[in-house]
């Protein structure tokens, strides 16, 4: 008969490894979800897209896009570059950098 000696340190390491593995899985899922959300929109967004992304009313979209720092296409009114919009969201969000 073989006896396995379990130490407190070994048990601690097992629990830690399990927690780290779970953390990585959750981070991966979140990254995939964020990628799907980000790239499910066309390269050029409309006011309707912005209302959906921000979950706001059309009148609020108008106020938001009036902000001079909000990214827009120079020659086409009411059209916004997707990637720049998502960058703007990240730069103008509090609590996460």
Radius of gyration (CA) equals: 23 Å
Number of helices: 4
Outline the low-pLDDT stretches. none
Summarize the helix and strand pattern as letters.
Answer: HEHHEH
Main β sheet profile:
2 strands, antiparallel
Order of strands across the biggest sheet?
Answer: 1-2
The whole-number mean of residue pLDDT values reads 89
In total, the number of strands is 2
Shape: rod-shaped
- Main structural class: mainly alpha
Helix content: 55-70%
> Could you give the distance between the termini?
56 Å
What does this molecule look like?
There is one protein chain. The chain contains four helices and two strands, in the order H-E-H-H-E-H. By secondary structure, the protein is mostly helical. It has a domain at 38-97. Strands 1-2 form a two-stranded antiparallel ribbon. Helix 2 crosses helix 3. The longest helix is centred in the first third of the chain and has 32 residues, at 8-39. The protein is rod-shaped, with a radius of gyration of 23 Å. The relative contact order is 0.10.
């Amino acid at each position: 008969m073989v006896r396995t000696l379990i130490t407190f340190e070994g048990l601690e390491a097992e629990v830690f490894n399990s927690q780290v593995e779970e953390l990585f899985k959750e981070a991966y899922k979140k990254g995939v979800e964020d990628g799907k959300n980000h790239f499910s929109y066309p390269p050029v967004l409309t006011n309707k897209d912005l209302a959906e992304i921000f979950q706001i009313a059309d009148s609020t979209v108008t106020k938001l896009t009036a902000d001079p720092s909000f990214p827009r296409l120079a020659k086409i009114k009411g059209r916004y570059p997707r990637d720049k919009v998502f960058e703007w969201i990240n730069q103008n969000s509090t609590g996460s950098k």
